[in-house]
Amino acid sequence: MAAWDVSEDSGDDYEYGSDAPIAKPKTIKSTAKSGVSSKTKAAKPTKKPLEESAVVNMDDAEDGFSPGPAVPASTMVPKTIEETYQKKSLLEHIILRPDSYIGSKELIEQEHWVFNSETNAMEVRKITIAPGLYKIVDEILVNAADNKARDESMNELRVSIDPENNVISVYNNGKGIPIEIHKEEKIYVPELIFGHLLTGSNYDDSEEKVTGGRNGYGAKLCNIFSTEFIVETADKERNKKYEQVFQKNMSIKKAPKITANSRNKEYTKITFRPDLEKFGMTIMDADFVSLIKKRVYDMAGCLGEKKVKVFLNDEQIKIRSFEDYCKMYLSQSDSPDPQPIFVKQISPRWKVGFALSEGQFRHVSFVNSIATTKGGTHIKHIQDSLVKIIQPKVNTKGVNIKPFQIKNQLSIFVNCQIPNPTFDSQTKENMTLKPSAFSASCLINDELFDKINSKIHIVDRVKGIGRQNQDKELKTTDGSKRNRIAGIPKLEDANWAGTRRSHECTLILTEGDSAKATAVSGMGVAGRDRFGVFPLRGKLLNVREANHESIMKNTEISNIKKILGLQHNKEYTTLDGLRYGALMIMTDQDHDGSHIKGLLINYFDKFYPSLLKVAGFLVEFITPIVKCTKGNQEISFFTIPEYEAWKLNNNGGKGWKFKYYKGLGTSTAQDAKKYFNNLQLHRKEFHTLEDGDRDLIDMAFSKKKADERKEWLRSVTPGTFIDHSASKIRISDFINKELILFSVADNMRSIPSMVDGLKPGQRKVMWSAFKKKIADEVKVAQLVGYVSEQSAYHHGEASLTSTIVGLAQDFVGSNNINLLSPIGQFGTRAEGGNDAASARYIFTGIPSITKTIFHPDDDKLLHYLDEDGDMIEPHWYIPILPMILVNGSEGIGTGWSSKIPNYNPMDIVDNLKRLMNDEEPRKMHPWFRGFQGDIEEAGENKYKVTGKATIDEEDCTIEITELPVRTWTLPYKEFLEGQYESNDKEKAGGFVKDIREYHTESTVNFKIKATQKGIKEIKEQGIEKKLRLVSTLSTSNMVCFDAEARIRKYNSVDEILKEFYGIRLEYYQRRKQYLLNKLKEDFTRMDNKVRFLLMVISGELKVQNRKRQDIIADLKAKGFTSFPPERSGRKISEANQAGEDADDDSAGYNYLLSMPIWNLTLEKVEKLKVERAQVEADLNETARTTPKQMWNKDLDAFVEEWEAILQRDEDYRNNVKVIPRGKKTAKSAPKTKAKAAPKSLTADMKTEIVPVNSNTLSMAQESMGKAVIPSLAAKSKASGLIEKPLTNFFQRDSQPIKLEKSAFADSDDEDQFIPLSKSTQPKLEIGTPDRSRSETPVEAQVKPKPAPKKRTIVAAPRRNRKQLSDYESEDDLDDIAPARKVSKSSESDDVSASPRPTKRAARTIKKVSAYIELSENEEDASMMQDDDSEFEEE
């Protein structure tokens, strides 16, 4: 029999209401192909229109497609070529291989969402269906829904399912199909689109269509796999009705019935009977019906908001919106509360819903009403944008949630219309269209996500997953109850730990190894069977909000779990499962020891709160912090406030000796034994948890409770201490009476004072520096030791070193005014100061400007603190201007943090003077010394800080000459290197081709070769944004301690300025009164001396051979004033301990009785009279001076010093030119114009390099006195230096450098170097000198054409004076010319004197080519020859 082949494509989805022209179909020809039983060729039919073609019964043809029963290989007849290689028509192929078109026709068990008629909701369950059968029904439903996209008037969709009669019908009242004959194909349009493959109106891809049809199969597939297929449609425009019946898999086509449309309606109705036999079924079973019903409800969900009523078996589905539809998937929850869902119309074509899943990602999505059950790019598009927002919110504190873990917690519902979508197959279960072609995207932004999260709480759900993962990991570090533990070297385990007597054991946790030694000494008394000890390394981690990774990596926590046998998440009611029955905390009695106790309590409250409810588990071991002794009496104090209160009530401890115990290491082994012998006193048990205790612990350690901690700290009262006499320590008392003192101390050392701008550590350094009276310079390592010794500094040397270095740093972004001198490498802006040298290599001193800021006359007005009976630093200094604004400050304490930017000292001075004149201050803005960028207001309490960069578009180069404040050069370089162009797709987007750097230690200079695309992007995005040249400064967190030591937040700079002004003005009044009193005392003292001498000379007062008491009685009788000597804090304490009377004024007349005998001479008496007159004049002058005049005078002195610093900065920038590597220079040496010399050269000034010319030489002559600079013209032939001159530089540091030899000629042109020859000029390269003054000045390197080596002259700078023992050997001195002698009678340095060379200078000079001493009478000089390479290396 014949098989039928459609020679050309001729079919499509049916398209309602479409009048689009359709390609002319071809005739159908009968062929006799291999695989058909007949071997004779069929006659070739003549071409006829399709409607006249003979209809062929396909039943027989179907038989030909069947491969038949298997034939045994032994009897199988070999196939012919024609039987092996076959060609099938499209219709044959669809029936033979339906998988490519409708999916499998076999019954398969799959998990699907289906409609449950009993619950009236969706449920997911396994059903057995033939996917192909489901697909042919779905095609008809989608086509009906498509009609709504073509006809907005469509408002009804009816679906009828009759399982008993195997009939399904789909009706819609949208625009009907045109009922007329297609002019090219000669058949009616309804027949064309329902009865012929590859026909339709969706082939014009230039049109945007949001319909389901695309490939021209659609409804024809339903026709092909149905035993009967009936098309009904009504055409209102043509007033016709059309009905046509197809039977037997579209093989039989009956003639259409066309009647009049008397009711003038429009609709289309498809009724069909699926060929169940082809799908291995006999009836429509319950699984299939429930799935089809679900698709009908899908239509209601997709079309409900478009005002389309959907009916199922003549019953309207009550779904009015997509949200109503989505809720059908959530009503199956067992919870009485409905599961929340968030649904939003994101754009006209996108409506999405979000809900939580049951641990597995689910989605319900529709593209143009097509159910994309496998998802696709539209689902991934939403997923990715959602995960991108969620992941950073949950991946905190070491949590590492993967994207798939987030997706598994989500249910996503999508109803979208996408123009011309593409799918991976005709089944259309997976959309493949790229998101860029969506026309309208559906990205989730932060604002939308916040709304989503507030409704469904997805972040909390995902965090819960993260916590579950963390709990699993934490359990891997659990301990267990066993007798012995290995792998913890510092553990001294109790012998009974982990045994049946483990409940009797106590584990002692100590603060460090030294404390462990104390505990071990005590255990010698208590016994090693019941006591174990383990030292903690510093402070335990605050686990309250620590990230998981930190907890897992924390060795201390892991060891504690193993030693105690703790198991994660276990609820403890007894201690039977632990290796120890008690945990004893043994720390220092200072504030840090209290913090360690709190951190341990915090750890158990976080992970094992049940243990804190077991009586006797947590105890502490207390030791004295102060011991007072008097004879055989001994009193121990466990808190400082308790000790201070005792002193107050016991005459200041007069007659007692006291000793401070800074830590457990202070206690001796004998002390430890004494402690353990009296465990009843020293062992204190913590009370079990009470109501409110856990909230207090959380408040003390949670970062989220900062505001509550502030209120908590405000509640503290002076003298608060915990009563250790109680039998048990309540946790609430520990937090409110002991831990709170640590928090107060933490703020004190972290937050600066508004008055002097210093923190306690910085104040100790400055006090020690002032006390040491550093004349020139001191090594930082030595100053560290001095500060620790003199100021009772209780922290580590590294911390103190960083404090000193920080006070001396002067690079951009550090201090506007460095209070200490940076003599050496104190760090640069390259690494933000982290590149500072070690303390043993660098020196510091007190610059003169510091002495103008902290005036010595204020020292006596300050309130000094007391430590161990010694006076230490003051409560605060009182500078002449608010240093908190000059240098700014940053700090983080407990509950408080502070961040104050720097301000211009000149602006501050001007505003102080305005306040003195009763004027309002002008607004000040942040300012940083040396910063060349811009700082602009960007809103309230906010500033925009911008660096500098220029672009050369022609050369595609960018030059960056300034970075935002505190954007350090090295990290910024790393950012630029990350912008290199790359072929790697992951690193695409780079715009940098090459980077060259020309920085100095104080300036920034990047030269970037960029790509053309990069230059374009920079111009589009803005150079500041693209190059990250913008940062922000905030003035909204200016927190300081005020003058009364109360922590306070200042709302504005003016508020700080005005408060400082009031305090400072009051102290100027106090200073005036103090000076008046001192001058009055000096005048009285001087007057008494003159009167005393005159009385002795005249014989009115006899002192020879008399008792002291008699003389003093006479002095009192004659009205002489007693001036008792002042005593330091230590001397007063010693006097108290010795029982001396501090009121005894017998020594008050020593100023008279101890005068030398030569004071009785006439000359001395006259001199004392003159001095008395001068004191009287000073007294009168001081009395006339107002406090504001004093202040103005101090400010003027400060301004003079400040302007000198700014001038030196300017001179440094202008006089030093860096020649970039490879940069071409002019053939002739450039002219260098000298700057005018400053009025004075002081020891604290920084090194400055000045080009040598006639001006600077004359300056040197003036400053050097006798030194004579001979001309080059007079000395060139004798010295032979004309071929290789050396440029000399002068150092503005200490005394001027003495020139030992000059190679320069006198010249009328003050800026012109003498040429080497007529043909060759030297090339002058001046490197960037070190501004720190720790190195010799940078010499200019003159590079002439090759010539015989000649002698070279080096001028060595003055360094700090050292003893002969400082030199490595006597040979070091042999190479150094003898220095000029200095007159012994001279009290000051002689500028003509050559200072003693330092050890470093000696070694440097030894390595140079030659050293010649210049004297006034010498015309020639001796010469030493050496290798130039050694000099260049040095």
From TrEMBL:
<feature type="compositionally biased region" description="Acidic residues">
    <location>
        <begin position="1415"/>
        <end position="1434"/>
    </location>
</feature>
<dbReference type="InterPro" id="IPR013757">
    <property type="entry name" value="Topo_IIA_A_a_sf"/>
</dbReference>
<dbReference type="InterPro" id="IPR031660">
    <property type="entry name" value="TOPRIM_C"/>
</dbReference>
<comment type="subunit">
    <text>Homodimer.</text>
</comment>
<dbReference type="InterPro" id="IPR003594">
    <property type="entry name" value="HATPase_dom"/>
</dbReference>
<dbReference type="GO" id="GO:0005634">
    <property type="term" value="C:nucleus"/>
</dbReference>
<feature type="compositionally biased region" description="Acidic residues">
    <location>
        <begin position="1"/>
        <end position="16"/>
    </location>
</feature>
<dbReference type="InterPro" id="IPR050634">
    <property type="entry name" value="DNA_Topoisomerase_II"/>
</dbReference>
<dbReference type="InterPro" id="IPR002205">
    <property type="entry name" value="Topo_IIA_dom_A"/>
</dbReference>
<dbReference type="Pfam" id="PF02518">
    <property type="entry name" value="HATPase_c"/>
</dbReference>
<dbReference type="GO" id="GO:0000819">
    <property type="term" value="P:sister chromatid segregation"/>
</dbReference>
<feature type="active site" description="O-(5'-phospho-DNA)-tyrosine intermediate">
    <location>
        <position position="841"/>
    </location>
</feature>
<dbReference type="GO" id="GO:0005524">
    <property type="term" value="F:ATP binding"/>
</dbReference>
<feature type="region of interest" description="Disordered">
    <location>
        <begin position="1303"/>
        <end position="1434"/>
    </location>
</feature>
<dbReference type="InterPro" id="IPR034157">
    <property type="entry name" value="TOPRIM_TopoII"/>
</dbReference>
<dbReference type="InterPro" id="IPR018522">
    <property type="entry name" value="TopoIIA_CS"/>
</dbReference>
<dbReference type="InterPro" id="IPR006171">
    <property type="entry name" value="TOPRIM_dom"/>
</dbReference>
<keyword id="KW-0799">Topoisomerase</keyword>
<dbReference type="GO" id="GO:0003918">
    <property type="term" value="F:DNA topoisomerase type II (double strand cut, ATP-hydrolyzing) activity"/>
</dbReference>
<dbReference type="InterPro" id="IPR014721">
    <property type="entry name" value="Ribsml_uS5_D2-typ_fold_subgr"/>
</dbReference>
<dbReference type="Pfam" id="PF00521">
    <property type="entry name" value="DNA_topoisoIV"/>
</dbReference>
<keyword id="KW-0067">ATP-binding</keyword>
<dbReference type="InterPro" id="IPR013759">
    <property type="entry name" value="Topo_IIA_B_C"/>
</dbReference>
<keyword id="KW-0479">Metal-binding</keyword>
<feature type="compositionally biased region" description="Basic residues">
    <location>
        <begin position="1397"/>
        <end position="1406"/>
    </location>
</feature>
<feature type="domain" description="Topo IIA-type catalytic">
    <location>
        <begin position="751"/>
        <end position="1195"/>
    </location>
</feature>
<keyword id="KW-0238">DNA-binding</keyword>
<comment type="similarity">
    <text>Belongs to the type II topoisomerase family.</text>
</comment>
<dbReference type="Pfam" id="PF16898">
    <property type="entry name" value="TOPRIM_C"/>
</dbReference>
<keyword id="KW-0547">Nucleotide-binding</keyword>
<comment type="function">
    <text>Control of topological states of DNA by transient breakage and subsequent rejoining of DNA strands. Topoisomerase II makes double-strand breaks.</text>
</comment>
<dbReference type="GO" id="GO:0046872">
    <property type="term" value="F:metal ion binding"/>
</dbReference>
<feature type="compositionally biased region" description="Basic residues">
    <location>
        <begin position="1346"/>
        <end position="1362"/>
    </location>
</feature>
<dbReference type="GO" id="GO:0006265">
    <property type="term" value="P:DNA topological change"/>
</dbReference>
<keyword id="KW-0413">Isomerase</keyword>
<dbReference type="InterPro" id="IPR013760">
    <property type="entry name" value="Topo_IIA-like_dom_sf"/>
</dbReference>
<dbReference type="InterPro" id="IPR020568">
    <property type="entry name" value="Ribosomal_Su5_D2-typ_SF"/>
</dbReference>
<keyword id="KW-0460">Magnesium</keyword>
<feature type="region of interest" description="Disordered">
    <location>
        <begin position="1"/>
        <end position="53"/>
    </location>
</feature>
<dbReference type="Pfam" id="PF00204">
    <property type="entry name" value="DNA_gyraseB"/>
</dbReference>
<dbReference type="InterPro" id="IPR001154">
    <property type="entry name" value="TopoII_euk"/>
</dbReference>
<protein>
    <recommendedName>
        <fullName>DNA topoisomerase 2</fullName>
        <ecNumber>5.6.2.2</ecNumber>
    </recommendedName>
</protein>
